[in-house]
Design brief:
Keywords: Transferase. Pfam families: ACT_4 (PF13291), HD_4 (PF13328), RelA_SpoT (PF04607), TGS (PF02824). The chain has 742 residues and is α+β, with helices and mostly antiparallel strands. It contains 27 helices and 22 strands.
C-alpha cells in the first residue's frame, strides 16, 4: 500500500548521501521535463541549491538528510497532483522559512512575489498545529484565505502531508496518533474536496494503519488472501462486456481495482457486517477515449451495453455526467448483479474525466483554459470567501463549521423555478432558506418539499424541490443554531441573535446607568468592566442583557464602595479550602501510568464517550476543569481532539491491576430463539463469573437486539467474553458500544 518504503536503518556515508540527493534531484527534473520552458531549469537549480544549503545540517527522524523530504514532496506534486514548475519551486522551499535562516524576503528577491506568497501560505499552515485551539482556528482561516487566493498552497500542503504519512513509521507513537487523526479530520476531506481521490484514499488508509492497526492488518491480510479469486471473478465479469464494447468501435480500457481498506472497514462498521459480507470489494472501471462533444452519449451507450448483460440496481445509479460534483468529478456509477449473485459497482468515465478524478483541481485548470464557464471550484471558493468575511474573530467553531460546510459531500436541490442549489450533506430546509438569501432565512417558518409541508429541521435529499414559506413576524432563535450545518446560515443566525440581544440589552444599560448615577458613581467603561468581572460575565453586552431580562437585580451594588466616581468591589470572603476535586474522585477508576513529565500514578476520569477499560489503546486528554480524561484511540471523538488540541494530549498506558472492575457495554444481535437469553446470562454470570450491571433486550421480527452492561477487569477478559458469546448458537454479532449509542 505504501509507495515509499522507509529505509530500515539509515547508514550512508557523506559521499553516498550526496549521490542519493543528486539522484533524487535528477529524477525530479526528469518527471518535470515535459513542462520545462527556457530558463526554468536555472530557476529550479537555484531553488534546489537554496533548500539544500538551508537544510544541510538537518535530518529527518529516520536519520536521512532533510532535503530528501522537499524533493519527495515536489515529486508527489508533479506526478500525483499534476503541478507545474512554479509549484515545484515552492515545494522545494516549503520548509525553509519556518525551519531555517532563509527569510521570505530572500525568497521574494530570488523568485518573485508569487512564489514568496505561496511559501508564506505554506509556512502559516505548518504553524497551525500545536498551538491553542483558537489560534489554530485563526491560522486555519489564514490558510483558507490563501487557498482562495491561490489553491496551490493547499495542493502542496497535501503533497507534504502525504509524504509525511508515508514515512510516519519513524515517529513516536503519540506523534503518529496526532498526525494520523489530523489527517483524517482535515486533510483527507480536503483532498476529496480538491478532487484528489487517489490521495484521499491513500491518506485514509495510512491514517487507519496507525489509528486502527489491528483492523487494518486484518483487512489487508484478507484482501491479499482473496486476491486470486477476485481476479478470476473480475475476468469472468469483464469478458462478455468487453466483447460487446469491442463491437461498438469505441476505444476503451476496462479493469477492476480493489476498494481501499478504509472504505471496506467503513462499510463493515456502518452495515455491521463481516469482511466476507462486503459485496463490493472492488469496482470495475470503463474508461473511454472519446472527443468532448460525444462524451455524454458515449458513457450512456456503455451503460446500456453493461445493463443489457447484467441487471442493474435502480436505486444505485449515480449520474454525475449531467450534474458534476462541486469538486469537478464527472462519471456514471451503477451497481449490477454479476455472476454467482454478487453485486458489482461499475464506474464509467472518459479519459478527460478520469484525469480530473485523479488530479482534481490541477487537471481542472488544464481543461478550463479557453472556456468562459465559471466552474464549481470558483463557486466553492466564492462561498468560502463569503463566510471568511463574516466570521467572528474568536471562532473556535470555525474548524468544525468549515468541516461540515465545505468538506462534506454535497447534495443538489431545486428551487420552485428549477434552479439548482448545491448544499452540503445533512443540510436542512433552514440551510436552504439561508442559501437563497439571509432575509428569506431569517423569516423562514417552514418549507414545502416536493409539495409536502415539512418543519425547518427537515433534512434535504438530493433531487428535492424546496419552496420556503416565510412570515415577517418570524425571528431567528438560539435553537436554530442546532438545526443548520452551513457556515453561512450559522453566521447569519449568530448576527441576528446578537442584534436581538443588543436591542434587549439597551434597556438594561439604561437601568444600570440610573443606578450608578444614584450612587454617585460614573457610568463609564472602567465601572462597567468591574461589574462584568464581579458577575463573571464575558462582556458589558452580557451584563446589560442579564439586567434587562432580570437575571441580575443589582442588589449587590450596595456592598460596593464608591471612591471618587470609581466603584470598588467588596472584598471576597475566602471560602474554606476543599481538597482538590481530582483527588476526591472515587478509587474505582484504577491506576494508570502516565508517561510525561513525571511517572507518578495520577488520578483521572474515564471518558464517557468511549468507556475505555484496561488494555485498550488509550491516550490522556487534559480537559479544562476535569483534570485528565482517558479516551480510547478509536473513540468517536478522538480524531477531533487529537487534531484540534494536540498540545493537550498525554501519552498513557495501563498498569496491571486486577482488583478493579470497569463498566462497559455490549450490543448483541441474534436470532430470537427460545432460551437464548438464558444462554447469554448463564455464560456471563454462571461460567465466566462476570457481574451484569444492566440488560435490555428487544425482540422484533425474529431478531433480538440486546444491550448488556457488564463489569470486566480489563480488555483481555472482555475479549474472552465477546469470543465466547459469538460461539453461542444463533448469535450473529457482538460489539462493544459507546454510551452515545445507548
Amino acid at each position: 500500500m505504501d509507495s515509499v518504503a522507509v529505509i530500515p536503518k539509515y547508514n550512508l556515508n557523506e559521499e553516498q548521501e550526496k549521490k542519493l540527493i543528486l539522484r533524487e534531484y535528477r529524477a525530479l527534473l526528469r518527471v518535470l521535463k515535459p513542462k520545462l520552458k527556457p530558463g526554468d531549469k536555472e530557476l529550479l537549480r537555484r531553488a534546489f541549491e537554496m533548500a539544500a544549503e538551508a537544510h544541510k545540517t538537518m535530518r529527518r527522524k529516520s536519520g536521512e538528510p532533510y532535503i530528501l523530504h522537499p524533493l519527495a514532496v515536489a515529486r508527489i506534486g508533479i506526478e500525483e497532483i499534476g503541478l507545474g514548475v512554479r509549484s515545484t519551486i515552492c515545494s522545494l522551499l516549503h520548509d525553509t522559512v519556518e525551519d531555517t535562516d532563509v527569510t521570505l524576503e530572500d525568497i521574494e528577491r530570488e523568485f518573485g512575489t508569487e512564489i514568496a506568497r505561496i511559501v508564506d501560505g505554506l509556512t502559516k499552515i505548518s504553524n497551525i498545529i500545536d498551538v491553542n485551539a483558537s489560534a489554530q482556528a485563526e491560522n486555519f482561516k489564514k490558510i483558507l484565505l490563501t487557498l482562495t487566493d491561490d489553491p496551490r498552497v493547499i495542493l502542496i500542503k497535501l503533497a507534504d502531508r502525504l509524504h509525511n504519512m508515508r514515512t510516519l513509521d519513524s515517529m513516536k507513537r503519540e506523534k503518529q496518533l496526532k498526525i494520523a487523526s489530523e489527517t483524517v479530520y482535515v486533510y483527507a476531506p480536503l483532498s476529496h474536496r480538491m478532487g484528489l481521490y487517489n490521495i484521499k484514499t491513500e491518506l485514509e488508509d495510512l491514517a487507519m494503519k496507525y489509528l486502527e492497526p489491528e483492523a487494518y492488518k486484518e483487512i489487508a491480510r484478507k484482501l491479499a488472501e482473496t486476491k486470486r479469486e477476485r481476479s478470476r471473478y473480475i475476468n469472468e465479469f469483464i469478458k462478455p462486456i468487453k466483447e460487446k464494447l469491442d463491437k461498438t468501435g469505441y476505444q476503451f480500457e476496462i479493469y477492476g481495482r480493489p476498494k481501499s481498506i478504509h472504505s471496506i472497514w467503513n462499510k463493515m462498521k456502518k452495515k455491521g457486517v463481516a469482511f466476507e459480507e462486503v459485496y463490493d470489494l472492488f469496482a470495475i472501471r470503463v474508461i473511454l477515449d472519446i472527443p468532448l462533444e460525444q462524451e455524454k452519449e458515449g458513457c450512456w451507450k456503455v451503460y446500456s451495453v453493461i445493463t443489457d448483460e447484467y441487471t442493474p440496481s435502480p436505486e444505485r445509479l449515480r449520474d454525475w455526467l449531467s450534474n458534476p460534483k462541486s469538486n469537478g468529478y464527472e462519471a456514471l456509477h451503477t451497481t449490477v448483479m454479476g455472476p454467482q449473485g454478487k453485486w458489482v459497482e461499475i464506474q464509467v468515465r472518459t479519459r478527460r474525466m478520469n484525469e480530473i478524478a485523479e488530479k482534481g483541481l490541477a487537471a481542472h485548470w488544464k481543461y478550463k483554459e479557453g472556456t468562459a464557464d465559471e466552474n464549481r471550484f470558483d463557486k466553492w471558493f466564492q462561498q468560502i470567501r463569503e463566510v471568511l468575511n463574516n466570521q467572528d474573530s474568536d471562532s473556535i467553531d470555525f474548524l468544525h463549521d468549515f468541516k461540515t460546510s465545505f468538506l462534506a459531500e454535497e447534495i443538489y436541490v431545486y428551487t420552485p423555478k428549477g434552479d439548482v442549489k448545491m448544499l452540503p450533506v445533512d443540510s436542512t430546509a433552514l440551510d436552504f432558506a439561508f442559501a437563497i438569501h439571509s432575509v428569506v432565512g431569517s423569516q423562514c417558518i417552514g418549507a414545502k418539499i416536493n409539495h409536502k409541508l415539512v418543519p425547518l429541521s427537515h433534512k434535504l435529499r438530493s433531487g428535492d424541490q424546496v419552496e420556503i414559506i416565510t412570515s415577517s413576524k418570524q425571528k431567528p432563535n438560539e435553537d436554530w443554531l442546532n438545526i443548520v450545518v452551513t457556515a453561512k446560515a450559522k453566521s447569519k443566525i449568530k448576527d441576528a441573535l446578537k442584534d436581538e440581544k443588543r436591542k434587549v440589552a439597551d434597556e438594561g444599560k439604561y437601568v444600570l446607568q440610573r443606578k450608578l448615577e444614584n450612587m454617585g458613581a460614573a457610568f463609564n467603561q472602567h465601572n462597567v468592566d468591574i461589574l462584568a468581572t464581579f458577575y463573571k460575565l464575558p462582556s458589558p453586552l452580557d451584563l446589560y442583557y442579564q439586567i434587562s431580562v432580570k437575571s441580575i437585580d443589582l442588589k449587590e451594588l450596595s456592598e460596593f464602595h464608591v471612591l471618587g466616581d470609581k466603584l470598588e468591589p467588596p472584598k471576597p470572603i475566602r471560602p474554606e479550602v476543599k481538597p482538590d476535586h481530582i483527588q476526591a474522585m472515587p478509587k474505582k477508576d484504577a491506576e494508570l501510568i502516565i508517561f510525561g513529565e513525571s511517572s507518578d500514578k495520577i488520578m483521572y476520569t474515564l471518558a464517557n464517550c468511549c468507556k475505555p477499560i484496561p488494555g485498550d489503546d488509550v491516550f490522556g486528554f487534559v480537559s479544562t476543569g476535569k483534570g485528565l480524561t482517558i479516551h480510547r484511540t478509536n473513540c468517536p471523538n478522538a480524531a477531533r481532539l487529537l487534531a484540534n488540541y494536540g498540545h493537550r494530549v498525554v501519552k498513557t498506558k495501563w498498569a496491571k491491576n486486577k482488583e478493579i472492575s470497569f463498566l462497559t457495554g455490549l450490543k448483541i444481535v441474534g436470532l430470537d430463539d427460545v432460551g437464548v437469553i438464558h444462554k447469554i446470562t448463564n455464560l456471563i454470570s454462571g461460567e465466566m463469573k462476570i457481574n451484569i450491571n444492566a440488560m435490555t433486550i428487544e425482540a422484533r421480527e425474529g431478531l433480538f437486539h440486546g444491550n448488556i452492561r457488564v463489569y470486566v477487569h480489563d480488555k483481555e477478559e472482555l475479549d474472552d467474553l465477546v469470543n465466547s458469546l459469538k460461539k453461542l448458537p444463533g448469535i450473529e454479532t457482538v460489539d462493544r458500544y459507546d454510551t452515545e449509542q445507548q
